[in-house]
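Batch job 17 of 40 flagged for manual review because the log was empty.
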Amino acid sequence: MAKYIMLINWTDQGIRTVKDSPKRADAAREVARKCGCELRKLYMTIGTYDLVAVLEGPNDEAIARFALTVAAGGNVRTQTLKAFSEDSYRKIVGSL
C-alpha cells in the first residue's frame, strides 16, 4: 500500500470542541478502515499544523475519499502528500 502524509488544521468549529478531538481521531481510524486505508500514526504538532497523520492506502482515490469524509465533518482542513519510502526515492533518483 502507498503511504501518505496528511497535514491537518483544526477549523474554528474543531478548536471550539478540541476536547472531543481524541474521539474524532478514533472515528477517523474507522473511516480510514471503511475506505480501505489505515491511519498508522497521528501526531499533535506545534507550528503551522495542528496534527500530522501517516496513512496507508491502496490508491489515491481511497485516500481522497477518506480526506473528504473526514473534512466534511467540519472540524478539520487537510492537505495530503503522497510519500515515497527511502528505497523508492533512491530508485527514482537512481533512474535519472
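Reviewer: the log was empty due to a logging misconfiguration, but the result itself is present. The radius of gyration is 14 Å. Unflagging and moving on to job 18.
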